[in-house]
User: Which sequence fits this backbone?
């Protein structure tokens, strides 16, 4: 009996992993798999690395410890958006003898064709991510062409001078922010630019 870890991920807190969970649990039951653990990263982009996705990281550590011998996920894009990261992920799984099942792609890496398909799916996931980035950049360029202010609001020179003066007097960053009514990131940016 396969010991399976189910991985669920959605990009925003407004989304739910419930459909992914229901389908993958049904597949596990039909296939006779034992679900050892369900790993869920909610509200985290697939573009984020392993260090930013705690459930994903825990799942890989459990695979390395041989607590699970297969990972089941809804789709390749739930695992990540970078071909390099996906191929590295598959390599890690292969090194510890752990397989992968992707429901939407009907992919099972216990077969050579499944492993080849996984790599091709990764190419398309990376392509989709690149297209999203292009659309966002086009929107930013349009907004800029229309004269809209983008990015951080500029800090007035008088506020910058006051931040530097208070810092030179030895005042802490948090206290400077509270004293002047600006965010600590503003203080850090001004101090760091000095």
Assistant:
């Amino acid at each position: 009996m396969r010991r399976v870890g189910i991985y669920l991920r959605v990009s925003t807190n407004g989304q739910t992993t419930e459909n992914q969970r229901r389908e993958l649990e049904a597949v596990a039951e039909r296939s006779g798999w034992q679900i050892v653990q369900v790993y869920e990263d909610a509200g985290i982009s697939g573009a984020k690395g392993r260090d930013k996705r705690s459930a994903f990281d825990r799942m890989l550590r459990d695979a390395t410890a041989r607590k699970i011998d297969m990972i089941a996920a809804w789709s390749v894009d739930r695992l990540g958006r970078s071909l390099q990261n996906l191929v590295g992920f598959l390599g890690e799984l292969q090194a510890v003898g752990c397989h992968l099942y992707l429901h939407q792609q009907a992919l099972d890496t216990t077969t050579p064709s499944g492993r080849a398909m996984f790599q091709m799916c990764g190419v398309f996931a990376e392509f989709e991510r690149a297209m999203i980035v292009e659309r966002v950049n086009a929107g930013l360029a349009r907004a800029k062409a229309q004269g809209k202010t983008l990015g951080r609001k500029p800090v007035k020179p008088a506020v910058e001078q006051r931040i530097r003066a208070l810092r030179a007097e030895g005042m802490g960053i948090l206290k400077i922010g509270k004293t002047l009514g600006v965010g600590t990131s503003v203080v850090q940016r001004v101090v760091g630019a000095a």
